[in-house]
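for the writeup, i need someone to sanity check this before i put it in the appendix. the sequnce is what the collaborator sent (i think, or maybe the updated version? ugh). structure was predicted straight from it, no edits. if anything looks off just tell me and ill rerun, i have time this weekend
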Amino acid sequence: MQNKVFSKILVLIILVLVIGGIIFWQLRPEEETIFPKGEKEAEQISEGGGEVALEKLGGKDIEQIPESELQEICAVESWPPEGCSVISDPEGRRLCEKCKELIKTEIQGEVEKQEIGVGIVKEKDITQITFFEGEGVTADPDWSPDGTQIVFGRHAGNERGLYMVNSDGTGLTKIGPDDVFDPSWHPVDNRILCYGGENSELYVIDLDKDDIEKTILAEHAMYPAWSPDGKKIVYYVYDDSNAPIPFNNPQCDGTGVSISIWIMNSDGTGKTQLTIEEDGFCSDPSFSPNGSKILYNKGFIHPGVPFLEKESTNEIWVMNSDGSNKHMIYTTGDSKYYLHQRAWSKNNEIMFEKIQWQKAPQIWVMNSDGTNPKCMLRPEEGFGVFLYGDIAWDNTGTKIAITQWKSASEERPDIFVDSNIITFSWK
């Protein structure tokens, strides 16, 4: 009796297993059907289909294409495609093997765009407004309050000095002293803030006066920037009295140099130090659109040709305009960042140069809290093509002026040729 019961139970178990196996086989996930036609043939299907699908995509972002449309452009006639496994991508779409490869390629491309910077701005979007030729540097453009003119510095033989040009490229005029750097146009009137001279003097010139005179506000000061109402000036001060190599020498690596950020009234009174030695190297300050915050670099960066510096990194920080609440908003740990005196737009976007050792500078933009960084403009690989730097928003946050130049050669990337000012629109 016990044997009969045991036999019946065993048969029942076998039937359950068989029926369960059949059900499981019928309901199995399609991704388990991997290359039933053989690996070689499947690879041919994947490669051929991928090329056709790429053509049919027509430049669309594959991450934004719904599953139904991907199925339609799929080169394989049936769906699911015969000879390919089906997988789910991060968007939840069921994709064939070759479309998976397209997705993988696209995602890798997006990552590379963020890492190496395939720029959003294209050559056709750029307008060149000056046309200097030969060796020399055209640098540090800034916009007039109404956006109709641009001021910049030129450092090349007999062409040295402060220049002004209309935003359409007409009316090029020399307006100021020979030894001048980083001009910053007052947000309301025609005063221009600069620095230069043997002691790196920070001074103001007034374009509305018949005789342009320098009003010196500070010494050993660099990279000044007006507050949005024009009542304050933020800048940084350096002390290289204990440095083995002067700070203005490109070979200086920061040894023995102290750098701090200061703020003062527009007439030079009320000088107040905002960062101290414990804060480290703090430089390149500029105001937020409402003047309540100051954006700056933390970490040594040379003011001359930073992309020639040896491997090093720095960070982008923000503090309140009284020096409180200092905090980092952006770094990747593998690059150096270079801010300019009009870096924070009215649309709460921050623009900066991203610099890596022995690579051409790239222009990036991000939200004012450091999120959503993306490459705005980058040159082709190598030093024989155009490089970009010295970026500045206009007062509306919709136009950008920038320096475009070439390095003479890979052997002498510190010698610049065909250096000019270009502009382009943004959003």
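Residues 33-112 form one domain. DSSP finds four helices and 26 strands in the chain.
thx in advance!!
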